[in-house]
Amino acid sequence: MSPKLRKIFVKILGKNVKINSRSDINNTLGWDSLNHIKIVNEIEKIRKKKFNIKQILEMTSIKSIEKFLKK
């Protein structure tokens, strides 16, 4: 996981969150629908690019987020 992405998750979910490359919305404490929108918003600020609804709904794991960041 990139340092920038980890920083976003720590900012939104807190310092004590256990996050790794296998983390997703179903197995990460605090990663709920509201925080998901906050995470996506922070990514959009860094990328200076808006995601569409389909992309946002697909970005439910670290792996899928990293895939979108590589585009």
Summary of the model, kept short:
This protein is mostly helical and 71 residues long. Helix content is 58%, strand content 0%.
Keyword list:
Non-ribosomal Peptide Synthetase Peptidyl Carrier Protein, Chain A, mainly alpha, 4 helices
Q: Can you walk me through this structure?
A:
The chain is mostly helical. The protein has helices at 3-13, 33-47, 53-58, 62-70. It has one domain (3-70): Non-ribosomal Peptide Synthetase Peptidyl Carrier Protein, Chain A, CATH 1.10.1200. It contains 4 helices and no strands. It is globular, with a radius of gyration of 11 Å. The two termini are 16 Å apart.
Detail the topology: elements first, then pairings:
Elements: H1 3-13, H2 33-47, H3 53-58, H4 62-70
Helix pairs in contact: 1-2
Integer average pLDDT: 94
Q: Radius of gyration, rounded?
A: 11 Å
Global shape: globular
Largest sheet: none
Distance between the termini: 16 Å
Oligomer: single chain
Number of extended strands = 0
- Which parts are unreliable, with pLDDT below 50 for 5 consecutive residues or more? none
How many structural domains?
1
Number of helices: 4
